[in-house]
Amino acid sequence: MEKWDLYDKHRNKIKKQISRGDEIGPDEFHLVVHVCIFNSKGEMLIQQRQPFKQGWSNLWDISCGGSAVAGDTSQQAASRELFEELGIYYNFEKIRPHFTINFERGFDDYYLVEHDFDIKKLTLQAEEVQAAKWASKEEIIELIKLKKFIPYYESIIAFLFEGRHHYGSIRL
């Protein structure tokens, strides 16, 4: 059973773990990571979730993501999820998330990476991913409108594309 470390609202790890599916107590939070891979053409690698996957089955999603397991740093979780879901090894140890979005029960860390590779060489995790492809911002927004993509805010998708080359929210 997958175990998660828990954090307080200031993102300090508390001395408590839970198993996936257990109820998180008030003022307890967990860590989720998302990796968005872009190619040099400015397209994002997206993946289609398996039809039997619980939650958002058959929908397209950003490159990869998942919960950090007990003992993982955000960077270790990003590296592990990317390798597990798509078979891509990338070392995140020397980088920080580009941004974090707080959600009701945790923290979503987003990593934005430019990495060209042959999509035919991906190793898709059979339990989670049925397909992968490159997509433009416009294609992703159209998939959202057609209810074929996880319903992210369109502004978040635009921010992912616009912010992929730098940290922060100010154009330099």
Keywords:
3 helices, 9 strands, four-stranded mixed beta sheet, alpha+beta, 172 residues
State the helix count: 3
Main beta sheet strand tally, sense and closure: 4 strands, mixed
Structural class: alpha+beta
Low-pLDDT residue spans: none
What's the average pLDDT?
A: 95
Sequence of secondary-structure elements: EEEEEEHEEEHH
> Strand share of the residues?
25-35%
Rg to the nearest angstrom? 16 Å
C-alpha geometry: globular
Please give the share of residues in helix.
Answer: 10-25%
Distance between the termini: 45 Å
Q: How many β-strand stretches?
A: 9
Going across the biggest sheet, name each strand in turn: 6-3-8-7
A few lines on this structure:
The chain is α+β, with helices and mostly antiparallel strands. It has helices at 74-86, 137-145, 154-162; strands spanning 3-7, 13-19, 30-38, 44-49, 60-61, 64-67, 99-103, 106-114, 129-135.
Model description:
The mean pLDDT is 95. It is built from 3 helices and 9 strands; from the N terminus they run ββββββαβββαα. It has 172 residues and is of the alpha+beta class. Strands 6-3-8-7 form a 4-stranded mixed beta sheet, with helices on one face. A hairpin with a 2-residue loop joins strand 7 (99-103) and strand 8. It is 18% helix and 31% strand.
Protein topology:
Blueprint (H helix, E strand, L loop, with lengths): L2 E5 L5 E7 L10 E9 L5 E6 L10 E2 L2 E4 L6 H13 L12 E5 L2 E9 L14 E7 L1 H9 L8 H9 L10
Parallel strand pairs: 3-8
Antiparallel strand pairs: 1-2, 3-6, 4-5, 4-9, 7-8
Helix pairs in contact: 2-3
